[in-house]
């Protein structure tokens, strides 16, 4: 079954999510403020648009309200990430997943109602540490 996704921010993290969802046959709307990023995803995602997602009118224009699950992968610009999440929440998006840059960012995202906050570098570091420990145990 196809479900509608949007990925905002096509850096390494957002870009990778966008590629994988598309490769699995999902209907993905790829969004970035920079034209070169959007061009890169024109042939990968079902749809790709240039937009500043901190602007509520822009979000309405690109039809974000028709999307079931939005992934916010804006990392460095924490203000833009928070504003975008707030707008999506106000527009009544069903499911919002957001990449957090640090613990304070994560706290704010949880407060404003993000459904799922991810911390890829920290979580991957933890996973690798556990995998190193279990490999060591097996080796001994
Ligand atoms: P990553 O850590 O995933 O590699 P990055 O370092 O490449 O990310 P970030 O600054 O974290 O880049 O931002 C990810 C993407 O979000 C960038 O491609 C950037 O153009 C986009 N972006 C930043 N602000 C906005 C915005 N207001 N609206 C839409 N896209 C934005």
Can you walk through the features of this model?
With 140 residues, this protein is an alpha/beta fold. The protein is built from 6 helices and 6 strands. The chain has helices spanning 12-23, 35-41, 56-61, 78-90, 103-111, 120-139; strands at 4-8, 27-32, 47-50, 69-72, 95-99, 116-118. A 6-stranded parallel β-sheet has the order 3-2-1-4-5-6, sandwiched between helices. 29% of the residues are buried. Bound molecules: adenosine-5'-triphosphate (ATP). Adenosine-5'-triphosphate binds next to helix 1 and strand 2. It comes from Gracilibacillus kekensis.
Largest sheet report: 6 strands, parallel
Stretches where pLDDT is under 50 for at least 5 consecutive residues are: none
Query: What oligomeric state is this?
Result: single chain
The geometry reads as globular
Order of helix and strand elements from N to C terminus: EHEHEHEHEHEH
Please give the count of helices: 6
End-to-end Cα distance, whole Å, is 46 Å
SS-based structural class?
alpha/beta
Distinct small-molecule ligands in the complex:
adenosine-5'-triphosphate
| Helix proportion range | 40-55%
Nearest-integer average pLDDT: 94
Roughly what fraction of the amino acids lie in strands? 15-25%
- Radius of gyration (Å): 16 Å
Number of strands: 6
Order of strands in the sheet with most strands: 3-2-1-4-5-6
Protein name: Trk system potassium uptake protein TrkA
GO molecular function: monoatomic cation transmembrane transporter activity
Domain RCK N-terminal: 2-118
Organism: Gracilibacillus kekensis
């Amino acid at each position: 079954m196809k479900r509608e996704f949007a990925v905002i921010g096509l850096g390494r993290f957002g870009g990778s999510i966008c590629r994988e969802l598309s490769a699995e046959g999902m209907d993905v709307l790829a969004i970035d403020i920079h034209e070169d990023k959007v061009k890169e995803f024109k042939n990968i995602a079902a749809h790709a648009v240039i937009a500043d997602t901190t602007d509520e009118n822009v979000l309405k224009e690109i039809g974000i309200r028709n999307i079931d699950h939005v992934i916010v992968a804006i990392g460095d610009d924490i203000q833009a990430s928070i504003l975008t999440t707030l707008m999506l929440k106000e527009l009544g998006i069903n499911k919002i997943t957001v990449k957090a840059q640090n613990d304070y960012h994560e706290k704010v995202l949880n407060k404003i109602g993000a459904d799922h906050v991810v911390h890829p570098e920290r979580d991957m570091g933890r996973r690798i540490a556990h995998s190193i420990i279990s490999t060591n145990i097996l080796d001994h």
